[in-house]
Amino acid sequence: MRLTLRLLAIAAFSALAVNAAAAQEPGADATWKELKPDVFGEQAITEASPLVRLTAPGRAEDAAMVPVEAEVMLPAGDPRTVKKLTLIVDENPAPVAATFSFGGQRHDVTLGTRLRVNSYSYIRAVAELSDGSLHMVARYVKASGGCSAPALKDEEQALKNLGQMKLRVVEDGKAGDATQASRLSKLQLMIRHPNYSGLQMDQVTRLYIPAKFVDNIEVRQGEDLVFSMVGGISLSEDPAIQISYEPTGKEIDVHAADTDGRKFESELKPAG
């Protein structure tokens, strides 16, 4: 009897917790229902998919730089591969933050970056597999003003360092050499760029700064594609991407471009 009452109490408490959470987010998924057909058409999406995991803070410390990490992992023996990963911030003026495409036969991908969040919103990670199926998870993040927050650097300084890159291999939190990296290594890329959203105001002239952001990145290991990215204004200033990859010891090359047509390049050569 006591066990039954205890289970009923737990169930009631869980129901209250769910209802309380829903009460804090009334209609929070309404935007997604309107947005989904524009991004994915009528294609079915498996929601709360066990194949995808998304880590994001419940309340962001800095709405202009919200750290997120998405992981796609297929079970052993699954013949499919991971082809694309799209990050979406429902309530942003341009909700599709970035779409990443992967080369090779990727059965697992871990990707981290920083996003702008303009108001309380769901952040979504949608993975596309080689069979065309879509799998999604979402996390609700409390943040506001990320797209209109002033740039951390003044425009003159930002343009002076425009396109400078930091590219390295990270293994167990330490920088290393690509030839000595394990399969669980991550490639870390950062590009100096203000990534102006078009919603930020010049603090001197009080005029809006025109949108100008990194919209294309391609990273190759030798001739093989590690990933390519098509991005928008929801990527933070100084875009930073960390992605798992399988090192071959070949030279890693980065080609990037922004909406003004500027092109940026970098490389990481194996030691020796």
TrEMBL record:
Species in which this protein is naturally found: Ancylobacter radicis
Domain Ig-like SoxY: 38-147
Keywords attached to this entry: Signal
InterPro entries: Fuse-rel_SoxYZ (IPR030831), Ig-like_fold (IPR013783), Ig_E-set (IPR014756), SoxY (IPR032711), SoxY_sf (IPR038162), SoxZ_dom (IPR014880)
Gene3D superfamilies, alphabetized: Immunoglobulins, SoxY domain
Protein name: Quinoprotein dehydrogenase-associated SoxYZ-like carrier
Keyword Hydrolase carried by entry: no
Annotated ranges, domain Sulphur oxidation protein SoxZ: 179-268
NCBIfam families: fuse_rel_SoxYZ
